[in-house]
Every structure is written in structure tokens, then in C-alpha cells.
Amino acid sequence: MAGRLRGSRESWWRPIDTLLAIVIIGGFLFYLYDVMVGGRGLDLPYLADNFDLFFFAALLNLYVTTVAFVVGMSIGFLLGWFRTARAVPLKKVVHDFRLLSDASSKSATLAYTGLGATLLWFGLKYAVRRIGDGYVELMRGTPLFVQILFVWSVLVVNFPNLFATPAAVALNAGLIALTLNTGGYQSEIFRGGLQTVHSGQVEAGRALGLTRLGTLRSIVLPQTLRLIIPPLTNEWIGLFKASTLLFVLGVRGEITFVANTEAFRGNAFEVFAIVTGLFLLITVSLAKLVQVLERRFRIPGLGIQLAPSERLPLFGRPRPAARGP
User: Which letter does DSSP use for residue 322 in this model?
Assistant: First the structure.
């Protein structure tokens, strides 16, 4: 009975909470509208005539964001995988080498050959991991604005004939900078997701006869991908908003460039309203879609947040389990 009353109160509170949020946000937007527009009123014909201009400009940002995100995902996965791969301890390699070299001359020859190959592989993995660590810290420790300007200056100074026009140089410089930046952040996302899967599951897969790639494909990746969906979504949204920095390179057709041009013609609030509406439409729609995917593919206890009906109350006793008919 108490559980039903609690559930009834929550069912009544949710629409009230949503209504209050709408009222507060609507009141803030109305105040902002009154301050910026004042008595001249909202220019509705301007909104109707220029919406398609901003819509196609947003498509350019979507294109740059998606291409950079997909390419950065491959960089992030490879770096995250290399940074989590366990290497054979060097002490164990030397110990096994001594045991083989003491056995016989033939074993010593094989030991020298195996030691050389092992040390080469050990050094390669160590170098890749350290380079990956430095790359990630460089991308995370410097502003994206500086990275965009740096890549652009490198292309202009060192490869002046690589692209036909200055506009192509600006667009590709922004695309490269966004790709390198999101690759570093996605490397951390993949590394965290891969390390979340317990090593006992990997060992169990190997004991069942799976290869390393088979274990990665059948055991590790299915769990990792479920865990990293939310942070990858946040990374895409952040990258989409950061794509507006291409304005500093003079990328024509980009939404911030178009908005800056139109705002100086006397319709600053209308420009702000269109750009804000487009960004909210794209980001909120994507976030809701990802929430549906989370609930659809969620594994209880794997680290993804529980559904509201499954959460324990902060105070009082837990809700009783729902009974069947």
C-alpha cells in the first residue's frame, strides 16, 4: 500500500516538475526577448525568409562534426586499445631467457632469437603507449582554439599548394584539428570502457579457446560499447558546438559565420533565436535518441544508470517488487 502511494505521488510530481521547468525557461526567454527586442517586436518575416539559410549552414557544421568524429573514433579506439594492452613484464622475459640459455647451446640460440623478438615487440608497445599518452595529454591540455590556429598555420606555411583556394585550406584545417582533438578525448573514453570489463572474463574466454581478437570481439567490445555510448554522445555534442570555432578561419557557409554576417544587419535577436533553436533541436534530439538506446541495450549492474523505476529510494524502505497478474 505504501509503495502504491509513493508511486502515485511520483506519477503526479513528474508532470508538475516538467510544467515548472517549462514555466521557468519560458519566463527567462521572455525576459531575454523583452531586453533585446523591446518595443520593435519580433521580425517574423525575417525568421521565415532566412531559416533555410541557417539550416543549410548548420548542415556544414554537421558534416564537419560527423567526419571528424568518425575518423577520431578510429584513432581513439586504436590508442585506447594499445594503452590498455598488457605487456609481458621485462623481468619475466629475462628470467625465461636465462632458463633456456642454461639448458643447451641449441636452446640458447632459440633463447637469443626469442629474446630479440620479445624485446622488439616490448619496445614497440612501450613506445606506442608513451606516444599515445603524450598525444592525449597534448590534446586535453591545450585549447581547441589554439589547435585550430596551429593546424591552419602549418598548412598555410608548409603546404601552400596542397589546396586550391584559401577557403579549402580553412575548411580542411578545421576538420583536421577537430579530428585530432576528438581522437585524444575518445582515446580516454575507449580506455576507460575497455578497462571496465573485468580481466577474469578475458581469461575465461581464453580458457574456452577464443583467440585474443575473438575475446575482444565477443566478450570485451559488446560490454564496452554499451558503457561508452553516453560519453561518446557527449563528445559528439561538444564537438558539434566546438565546430563553430571554424568562424575564426573564415569558413564561409558555417553557421557562426552566417550568423555574424546577418546580426550586423539589425536582426541580432532573430539570428540568436534561429541558431539557438537549431542547436537545441539537433543536440536534444540526439540525447533523447541515445537515452532510448541506453535503455534498450542496458545490462543491469554493468555501470549504466538504472531506470527510474528500478532505483532505490533515498529515504525509507525499498519499493516492493511488482507482482504478476
Answer: P
DSSP3 helix / strand / coil % (the chain, rounded to 5):
80, 0, 20
Instruction: Tell me the domain boundaries of the chain.
Output: 9-41, 42-86+144-300
Neighbour-count burial of 42, counting CB atoms closer than 10 A to its CB (0-12 exposed, 13-18 middle, 19+ buried): middle
Q: Which residue from 269, 212, 273, 235 is spatially nearest to 144, judged by alpha carbons?
A: 235
Q: Report the predicted TM-score, pTM, of the whole model to 2 decimal places.
A: 0.75
Could you give the CA distance from residue 230 to residue 233 in angstroms, rounded to a whole number? 5
DSSP strands (E only) in the chain: none
Angle at Cα 244 formed by Cα 269 and Cα 145, nearest 5°? 130
Average of pLDDT values for 167-185? Answer: 93
Residues whose CB is less than 8 angstroms from the CB of residue 177 and which lie 6 or more positions away in sequence, other chains included:
144, 147, 148, 150, 151, 152
* Burial of 137: CB neighbours in 10 Å, binned 0-12, 13-18, 19+: exposed
Contact 47, 273 (CB under 8 A): yes
Please, are residues 132 and 82 in contact by the beta-carbon 8 Å criterion?
yes
Query: What is the CATH number that goes with domain 42-86+144-300?
Result: 1.10.3720.10
CA-to-CA distance for 250 and 262, rounded, in angstroms?
15
Report how far residue 231's alpha carbon sits from residue 178's, in angstroms, rounded to the nearest whole number: 17
Using alpha carbons only, how large is the chain's radius of gyration in Å? 28
CA distance 194 to 229: 13
In the numeric block, the cell 561508452 is attached to 228
Residues 110-125, mean pLDDT to the nearest whole number? 65
What is the distance between the alpha carbons of residues 72 and 139, in angstroms, rounded to a whole number?
12
CA 146 to chain centre: 20
Q: How far apart are CA 134 and CA 236, in angstroms?
A: 23
pLDDT at position 259 over 60: yes
